[in-house]
Amino acid sequence: MRRIITTLMSVLMLLPFVAEGSSTTRIDSLVNELDTVINNRSHYFEVKENRISTLKSSLAEAGDDKKRFDILGELVDEYNPYNTDSALVYSVEREAVARRIGDPTRIYNARMNRAAALSAIGMYPEVLEVMKDISTDKLPGYLHPYYFYIMRTLYGRLADYSAFEPEKKRYEELTDAYRDSLMSVNEPGSLAFAISKADQLNINGRPGEALAVMEDFMATHDLSEHDKAICAWTLSESFGLLGDEEARKEQLLVSAISDMKSAVREYISLRSLALQLYKEGDLDRAYRYLNICVEDASKSNARHRIIELNETYPMVNGIYIDAMKRQKRSLQWALAIITVISLSLLGALFFIRKQMSKIAAARKTIEENNARLNTLNSRLTESNRELCEANRSIAENSRVKETYIGRYMDQCLEYIERLDSYRKSISKLASSGKTEELKKMVKSSAAIDDELKSFYGNFDSTFLKLFPTFVEDFNKLLQPEEAILPKKPGSLTTELRIFALIRLGITDSDRIAKFLRYSITTIYNYRTRVRNKAAGDRSKLDEQVLLIGRSEH
After folding, report:
1. C-alpha–C-alpha distance, residues 534 and 483, integer Å
2. What is the pLDDT of residue 1?
3. How confident is the model at residue 536, as a pLDDT?
């Protein structure tokens, strides 16, 4: 029964992962980057608007028409993929300035600006009207690529929106012709040539060669964000023709990211990406992207993009319905599985309830036994602690006693020898009748003082041998500025000697006074003075001193 329950729980845990089926890939990283860039679009638009404002200020301050003509050209370039109405307005103004200058080349250039804006708006007859009396014979060489680009774009769009096959075929032939012309007037190593060549190869069913052209160009050139968007879009077309949907999606993401960073509103990559996401079932993200496309197409007034989006909605609706059907089927399967699991769980619950009563009784017995065991363990732990403390004290006392017994024996031998020497000196003086010198010798305390000095020196050296870090450890218990330092290494001051005796277990002031040959009052004053210097609780200073030199201290 336990194995059945484990299996059922495993199935439940796996259901969300089967439903999502997501993995961390480069595409996931690019999707996250695109979402971040979209969230920051206001920044890119702000940079764009600042650039346009700067150009408008320069236009207002321009001193002659030639300078105005150049600035107006920059404004047209800025507005072309951003706001086609504004691009049209400034192209008309640029043409008026060109006519004031009286330069035919500038007039043709400005008119082609107007034709490009009209083409983006979708006013194709008006484009033909503007371009009808412009030919390459009238244009200098540097304007030929611009002329052929406008004509190739115009007929390409007419071919896309032709309702009847004969017209569509004728427009496609004109598109191919102008593409060939566009390639002929651009340098083979230029972006315009590479894009046109790859476009030609894709249309002629040679996407592998188109990939080679674009990848070679991108590997040898530094690209702006806008150029990168165009190149990535062309690559996505090639990968789509090759049937590599994963690579196509990656390039659409790259292109869309660059479009967003370029602050353009006339683009195609994000729309194509949204359709791909709809097919994959990422409906929320696809819906958000498509709304952005609709908003940008409306603001830029790029009518051909609006038409493309309108044509997209039936496809999106079909994909959405299919996704809903798949979700419904998934939900039905999930409900069936959940029903089976629920029934199995009900049976398991009856079995578990029966077992639980047995387990509860056993658990109560175990808890009672554990409580008794814990009590015994606590007592045992406390006994062990007390035993360890006793063993440590015994070991320490043994070490101290061994050291002091050895030193005591040595000291006694020294005192016997000194007493014998003293006796001989007295005997000698008495034998020789030098009573005055004998009296002086008996009355003098110098010998006692020397012996005390020697005794305390031996005590200090013996104690510091037992506790070599006593001085440092004791000073750590005091305030930093109140540290007590011996006059010379290997010795102790009176204060340190008092607390050295306390460390040895001699805490009674009377015994300390007798040992150091001071009055009890003096010893009490010393101890009080040092306690007042304590860094912590001064009432616990003696207890802390007793811990100096212990292994756990």
Report:
1. 10
2. 45
3. 87
Give the orientation angle of helix 435-443 with respect to helix 303-432, to 10 degrees: 150
DSSP string, 315-379: HHHHHHHHHHHHHHHHHHHHHHHHHHHHHHHHHHHHHHHHHHHHHHHHHHHHHHHHHHHHHHHHH
pLDDT at 553: 44
Which residues, 6 or more positions from 483, have their beta carbon under 8 angstroms from its beta carbon? 475
Closest C-alpha to 198, from 259, 260, 159, 251: 251
Question: 109: Cβ–Cβ under 8 A, 6 or more apart, which residues?
Answer: 73, 98, 143, 146
What is the average pLDDT across 360-385? Answer: 80
Could you tell me which of 258, 267, 257, 260 has the C-alpha nearest to residue 304?
267
The whole-model pTM stands at: 0.55
What number is the average pLDDT over the span 191-209?
92
Residue 172 contacts residue 154 (beta carbons within 8 Å): no
Structure tokens at 375: 């009590």
Residue 14 structure tokens: 């796996």
d(Cα 498, Cα 507) in Å, to the nearest integer? 9
> To which residue do tokens 């059922």 refer?
8
Calpha distance 272→315 (Å, rounded)? 12
Using CA atoms, how far apart are residues 268 and 279, in angstroms rounded to an integer?
Answer: 17
Q: Among residues of the chain, what percentage have pLDDT more than 90?
A: 40
Both tokens assigned to 322: 């299919």
* CA distance linking residue 550 with residue 487, whole number of Å: 26
CB 497 within 8 A of CB 508: no
414 pLDDT higher than 90: no
DSSP class of 437:
H
Which residues, 6+ apart, have CB-to-CB distance to 397 below 8 Å?
505
pLDDT digits (tens, 9 = 90+) for 379-410: 877 867 766 665 566 556 556 655 655 555 55
- In this structure, the number of other CB atoms found within 10 A of the CB of residue 345 comes to 16
Which of 491, 492, 531, 498 lies closest to 515, judged by CA?
498
Q: CA–CA separation, 141 vs 287, rounded Å?
A: 46
Which helix H or strand E contains 546, and what residues bound it? helix 541-546
Mean pLDDT of the chain: 83
Could you give the CA distance from residue 304 to residue 425 in angstroms, rounded to a whole number? Answer: 132
* Contact indicator for 124, 157 with CB cutoff of 8 Å: yes
Q: Which residue has the tokens 């006059």?
A: 487
Report yes or no: 470 and 459 within 8 Å, Cβ to Cβ.
Answer: no
Find the range with the poorest average confidence among 35-49, 264-278, 296-310: 296-310
Give the residue among 268, 238, 216, 251 at the shortest CA–CA distance from 26.
251
Distances (CA, A) of 490 to 211, 467, 493, 496, 500: 88, 11, 10, 12, 13
- As a whole number of angstroms, the longest Cα–Cα distance in the chain is 160
Tokens describing residue 85: 């109405």
Euclidean distance between CA atoms 57 and 49, whole angstroms: 12
Cα(262)–Cα(441) distance, integer angstroms: 112
Please report, as a single letter, which amino acid is at residue 245. E
CA pair distance 147, 142, nearest whole angstrom: 10
Q: How many CA atoms lie within 13 A of 392 on its CB side?
A: 13
Per-residue pLDDT at 243 = 92
